[in-house]
Design goal:
Methyltransferase, Cobalt-precorrin-4 Transmethylase, Domain 2, six-stranded mixed sheet, 14 helices
């Protein structure tokens, strides 16, 4: 039984619309088109496969740019005494491919999404072009050449770094043709990319406390955003003997490194803003572009890194904003090694997110519970208000020892009242 999916398209007859499917497969990793099989997978056959193959070859040769003939294979097969055509499209290298009569725009460039072919956005088209040319975004000449560098010059002067044309060429802000590169655009006062920050009341994004958008040179943005978040990075004090221990909600290194990581490693082929969200109990920063090809989340946790914007990273390194290449994520995780909640690193195809937990955040432990309730009932009532609980909270809530808390929690799990989540120091419990 034939069925359409990400790599398979079924066509009962040959029509000109098939060019759209061919373009989509060529831009998305390849696939197969079966002509003579209907959408339900029934073999209906073709009356004149010779003419259809000639017409199909002409469509590929004249109707699609760049030339796809080397990356397509057409063959005829007979199934149940019915003739069909199978067109195989390889993962072609010269992306983006497009309809010759539409050009390099959304109406001409298609991608495969599930079992359908969809128009590509202008941003994706631009990214495909850059990827196929293998020229990093930051090294391409900027479309904007009327740029100013007041913030960069002032900052370099503060760091005792001389600023002249030779230095700007060395840093790849100016290319050999004496044109500003996209790196120059990112560091200029006219940088079109921004960071949007939102401070929320509570643990969700229902009610705003404050929000602000930061613009200008990326060098300015990293400092402005860090200063802004530090206003909300409160200090809690704990008296231990004769000593007062001050602890910020978020380790300062982790907060700053998360901002730097988002700026240095994001994909600037996408025009959207970096998004920063601060809640009562956690912080999130989301940047565009996902992981560099070939890397996995596991690699990052192991300390492996690949810089998407190596020239930008080099400038941040020269300014001592980052201590060394590729250690940021690992050091963020290390900054939480003495706390139960650990940072979470997550990625999709087009986004990358770091989540940090507020180390001073405490659930509402002061809930008033009737004395007539059993110890297990008190835990249940607490969970109805706070959603989760851990062993330390159980000890304080019930005024019991660690051993007794473990026994009660184990009994509640066995009786299907609660279930445990995570393991080790990160274990917590929720109502089942």
């Amino acid at each position: 039984m034939y069925k359409e999916d990400e790599y398979t398209e079924l066509k009962s007859i040959l029509t000109k619309d098939i060019k759209k499917e061919i373009v989509a497969f060529a831009n998305s990793g390849g696939g197969r088109i079966y002509i003579g099989i209907d959408d339900d997978g029934n073999i209906v056959g073709l009356d004149n496969t010779k003419n259809d193959i000639e017409a199909l070859s002409g469509m590929i040769k004249d109707g699609i740019k760049s030339d796809l003939t080397l990356y397509t294979h057409i063959k005829q097969e007979q199934i149940n005494n019915k003739n069909i055509i199978i067109l195989e499209i390889l993962n072609a290298p010269n992306k983006p491919y497009y309809l010759a009569d539409k050009g390099l725009k959304s109406s001409g460039v298609y991608l495969r999404s599930g079992n359908t072919s969809v128009p590509a956005s202008d941003e994706v088209i631009k990214k495909l072009i850059i990827d196929s040319q293998n020229i990093p975004f930051e090294e391409i000449p900027s479309k904007h050449q009327n740029l100013h560098f007041n913030y960069l010059i002032a900052l370099f002067k503060e760091k005792n770094i001389d600023v002249n044309k030779n230095i700007l060429k060395t840093l790849k802000i100016i290319n050999l043709d004496e044109m500003y590169t996209n790196l120059g655009l990112l560091l200029s006062d006219e940088c079109p990319f921004s960071i949007k920050c939102a401070i929320f009341e509570g643990k969700n994004d229902i009610k705003f406390k404050d929000r602000k958008e930061f613009t200008g040179s990326l060098l300015k943005q990293v400092n402005d955003v860090n200063d802004y978040l530090n206003i909300y990075n409160k200090i809690s004090s704990d008296i231990q003997g004769l000593e007062r221990i001050d602890t910020r909600d978020y380790p300062e290194y982790a907060l700053r490194e998360s901002i730097l990581n988002a700026i240095i490693h994001r994909d600037y082929n996408y025009s959207g803003s970096i998004l920063v969200s601060l809640y009562d109990d956690h912080f999130e920063i989301t940047s565009l572009g996902g992981l560099v090809k070939g890397l996995t989340i596991k690699d990052l946790y192991s300390g492996v890194s690949q810089t998407r914007n190596k020239n930008l990273a080099n400038i941040f390194f020269r300014l001592h904003y980052v201590e060394s290449f590729g250690t940021g994520i690992k050091r963020i995780i290390q900054s939480y090694e003495n706390y139960n909640e650990k940072p979470i690193i997550s990625s999709t195809e087009n986004t990358f997110k770091v989540t940090l937990y507020n180390v001073n955040y405490k659930e509402n432990n002061n809930i008033k519970l009737p004395s007539s309730l059993s110890q297990e009932e008190k835990i249940v009532e607490y969970l109805k208000v706070n959603n989760k609980i851990n062993r330390n909270i159980v000890e304080k809530l019930l005024g019991i020892s660690s051993t007794r808390a473990k026994i009660i929690l184990k009994n509640m799990i066995n009786n299907n009242i609660i279930k445990s989540m995570n393991n080790g120091k990160n274990t917590y419990y929720v109502l089942k």
